[in-house]
Structure formats: structure tokens, C-alpha cells
């Protein structure tokens, strides 16, 4: 398939710049993947759109306030860090801007709060840095004081409340971007789902900035996916197996949950506990082994995420749904509206 097969025209004014209030007031485009039928609902109606016995699988990864603005200790020059991956021992792989003179041994300061030393330059020009952490603090507590949310490049307005780029169930620190399909859930909505007999469980996949990396090759199959770390617990694996055995549906909340479930199923031929990294690339022709439904936001043209949706919902169904969403002026991307595909 060609990358351009997944292009669609999107007026810039449909790119959501701010989250909607309340979270579950967003619109929900429902797509029947068997018939291609569409209906227009509100996300708060989700309990009426699922069946008792269904299981929602959510990504509980928490976004790090990973964009830091500081200065070189030696020259006072301004510098920006973007944390990509926790390497343990107060060390992170980062992007540094400007990076040309950010050589090993350079010390960066962030007010009176933190110092960071550049240790090494790795493939691709990223840096390994180490935080000096005062007694009683952790890197994560320091980030809460000095960090900003690494919002996607298409969001140009400042986010006033950092928690609006977190799901209400986020708990495992490690993502560089939010698993945005989960942003629509509220504690009240989760309670209503449970009252309807619709359970939920969690996986963890730490979202990397590669999720925003464009597909640059013309032939889709030649694209190489970035790697992301995931974890599936014994409890979650057992819930999924019980749901399947009882005839319920497993609904992935977001492409990250979908990639986790499909990675485990592809690796073992079944769902079982696992802790690994995945480079799974899902595009039309992929045979799904784990999920029966998908809740997801609207994704960028020619992105790996719209390719994943097309693989699950069908290419023609997906492109027709996106065309209708544009016509109906749905809100797109991270702070935008959602789709339910079953």
C-alpha cells in the first residue's frame, strides 16, 4: 500500500487546541466495521453502546512533564531538554536543543532546583543525562516542579492544567505523550460502566515521541516502527481470558492498548503476562488476534495510527468515516473527539 492512500483533507480549524469540559462531553462517532454504518453519539453514552460482559482494556501510563528549559552552567546559554526514556539510576535518554555543543561533561541547571550532567551521545544524536537528586526528592518530584507537558506540535496553546493531558487512571510514570483515547473517561463514567456489567482492566505501554513521527517512505510496508515498552499483568491476562471464554468482547481503549494486546497475542499465540518492548506495525492485511473493538481518537493523515484503524475497521470504512467526521466538524487529534469501532 502507498502512504498517500491514507491522506485526507483536514481544515486546520478542526484540530482541537484545548480539552473539552467535562471530559465525557466529547462527540463519539460509532462505526460498525461489518456494515460500515455510522452513528453520531456523545461519549457519556458509552455504557448504552457496549454490552454487559464486555471488557475495556486501558493504558495506565502517566505522561511525564518531560520538557525542561534551563541553562548551561558554564556559559549561561539557554537549553531545552526533552526526556524520552528512563534508563534507571536517575539517568534518561533525551533530546537536547541546541545539541551541537551539548557534549559529555556539560552541566545544565534548572533554576535552583535541579542540575543535569550530559554523560554520553547515542545513536541518532540523543543524549544520556543524569540528574543530581537532592535528599528526599526523586527525578519525578523534580519534574513536577520544573517540567512542562510535551504537547504534540499541532497544539499551539499553552495547557493551563497539566492533569488534562493525563487520563484519570494514569499511574505508571513513563510516557512522552498521552494515550489520548482515555482522556474522555471520568470516574463517574467508569462507575456507570461497572453498573452496566462492563468491566475494565489495565495494561501499561509507555508512549514514545515516535508516535508523532511521520511515515516518510512511499510504500507502507517499508516503514520501521519505533520501539515502546509494555507490561501485561497476571490479573489483566486472566480478566481477558475470562471475558473471551464467557463470550464477552475485549475493547481496546486506544491504539496503545491495542498494540500491547496484539503484541502479546502475536508473541505467544494467546494472552498471558508479559513485560517486553514492541515494534509491532499494524496496517491493512493484519490479522487481529486479541481485540474485538476499539475506542480511539481521530489521527493524523498518513500516520501509522490511521493505518492501524484501517486495519481493524477496514480501509474503505475508515476513510469514509473520516470524510464524514470532517463534514460534521468533529474535533481532531489529541484533545479531539473519539470513535467507537465494533
Give the tags.
alpha/beta; 6-stranded antiparallel β-barrel; QueA-like; globular; 17 strands; single chain; 342 residues; Thrombin, subunit H; 9-stranded mixed β-sheet
Could you characterize what this model shows?
By secondary structure, this protein is an alpha/beta fold. It folds into two domains: 241 residues, QueA-like; 80 residues, Thrombin, subunit H, CATH 2.40.10.240. 20% of the residues lie in helices and 27% in strands. It is built from seven helices and 17 strands. The strands form three sheets. It has a nine-stranded mixed beta sheet with strand order 2-1-17-16-14-3-12-13-15. A six-stranded antiparallel β-barrel has the order 5-6-7-10-9-8.
Q: What is the element string, with H for helices and E for strands?
A: EEHEEEEEEEEHEHEEHEHEEHHE
Mean pLDDT: 95
Give the end-to-end Cα distance, rounded to a whole number of Å.
24 Å
- The parts where pLDDT drops under 50 for at least 5 residues are none
Q: Using only CA atoms, what is the Rg?
A: 21 Å
Outline, from the CA principal axes? globular
Share of helix among residues?
A: 10-25%
Amino acid at each position: 500500500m502507498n502512504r498517500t492512500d491514507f491522506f485526507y483533507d483536514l481544515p486546520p480549524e478542526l484540530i482541537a487546541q484545548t480539552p473539552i469540559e467535562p471530559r465525557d462531553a466529547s462527540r463519539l462517532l460509532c462505526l460498525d466495521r461489518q456494515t460500515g454504518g455510522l452513528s453520531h453519539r456523545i461519549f457519556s453514552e458509552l455504557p448504552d453502546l457496549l454490552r454487559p460482559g464486555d471488557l475495556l482494556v486501558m493504558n495506565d501510563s502517566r505522561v511525564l512533564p518531560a520538557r525542561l528549559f534551563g541553562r548551561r552552567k558554564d556559559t549561561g546559554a539557554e537549553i531545552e531538554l526533552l526526556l524520552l526514556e528512563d534508563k534507571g539510576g536517575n539517568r534518561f535518554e533525551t533530546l537536547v536543543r541546541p545539541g551541537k555543543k551539548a557534549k559529555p561533561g556539560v552541566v545544565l541547571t534548572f533554576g535552583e532546583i535541579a542540575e543535569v550532567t550530559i554523560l554520553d551521545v547515542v545513536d541518532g544524536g540523543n543524549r544520556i543525562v543524569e540528574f543530581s537528586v537532592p535528599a528526599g526528592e526523586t527525578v519525578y518530584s523534580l519534574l513536577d516542579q520544573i517540567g512542562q507537558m510535551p504537547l504534540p506540535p499541532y497544539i499551539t496553546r499553552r495547557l493551563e492544567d497539566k492533569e488534562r493531558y493525563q487520563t484519570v487512571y494514569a499511574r505508571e510514570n513513563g510516557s512522552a505523550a498521552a494515550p489520548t483515547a482515555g482522556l474522555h473517561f471520568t470516574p463517574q463514567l467508569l462507575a456507570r460502566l461497572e453498573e452496566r456489567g462492563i468491566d475494565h482492566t489495565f495494561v501499561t505501554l509507555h508512549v514514545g515521541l515516535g508516535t508523532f513521527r511521520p511515515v516518510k517512505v512511499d510504500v507502507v510496508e517499508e516503514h520501521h516502527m519505533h520501539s515502546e515498552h509494555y507490561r501485561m499483568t497476571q490479573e489483566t491476562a486472566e480478566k481477558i481470558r475470562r471475558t473471551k471464554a464467557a463470550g464477552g468482547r475485549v475493547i481496546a481503549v486506544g491504539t496503545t492498548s491495542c498494540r500491547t494486546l496484539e503484541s502479546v497475542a502475536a508473541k505467544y499465540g494467546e494472552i498471558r503476562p508479559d513485560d517486553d518492548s514492541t515494534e509491532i506495525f499494524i496496517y491493512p492485511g493484519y490479522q487481529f488476534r486479541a481485540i474485538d473493538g476499539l475506542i480511539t481518537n481521530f489521527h493524523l493523515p498518513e500516520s501509522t495510527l490511521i493505518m492501524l484503524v484501517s486495519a481493524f475497521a477496514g480501509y474503505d470504512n475508515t476513510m469514509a468515516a473520516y470524510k464524514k467526521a470532517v463534514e460534521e466538524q468533529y474535533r481532531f487529534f489529541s484533545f479531539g473527539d473519539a470513535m467507537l469501532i465494533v
